[in-house]
User: Fold this.
Amino acid sequence: MPIELNLVPEVRGPLSVHPFVGARDHGVDAFVTDRFGGVGEGPYESLNLGDHVGDEHGTVLENRRRVAAAIGVALDQLLIVRQVHGTSVALADSFDPDEHADAIWGGSAELALAILVADCLPVLLVDSSGDDFAVVHAGWRGLRSGVIANVVSRFTDPRSVHAFIGPSISPEGYQVGPEVAGNFLHIDRAVLADVGDRSRLDLRRVALEQLRVLGVGDENISISTQSTDGGETFFSDRAARPCGRFALVARRAS
Assistant:
């Protein structure tokens, strides 16, 4: 069985962040942000990190600056890409902020990698036998297309990969139609029957089974028990639109 995580908040400056404590054993400082400690207002209150959801540009920059400080880097060392629900992987050492990608790969202690979510899975992958690690944005489209597989294939040995899955929407909160559910019917307990032709989709279950097939052992997989349902602690696109985005942020410890 994978490891269940209850992410405990930790204060860093004005922010409360939720660290993956187990990643520290492999030399990576990583956390997910929540909604609090920022300067945003209205539906973006207060730590929105997405610059594509209608929030004020200066507000988003200040929020990103606070997150960069919390991970120990300058704002221009916090790498965030343009996410498109695809499978492309951006490389930290040749980074382009306008690149379209849904994962970032790196290993330097001088740079922090971040992906943004508001119901989708935030996934951290760490190589326990080397310096490489990656952050991955995985919604149903990315999971269907193989974004996790594309990242895991870059590691030398999947048996040395440790996966940490952060807060996402729960199956109870994620009703989908047959056009979505049909992509995952082959995965045991990933699709649960609901009313009419509607189903409930368990994104975490999908990611777990994909990681297993790729050769990542259950003992190396940690899954947060927290959900984004309701949007009270973490932004949720299902709960409210427009809404902000929270982040998974990771940096190789120096």
Q: What stands out?
A: Residues 175 and 200 are 5 Å apart (CA to CA). The chain has a mean pLDDT of 97.
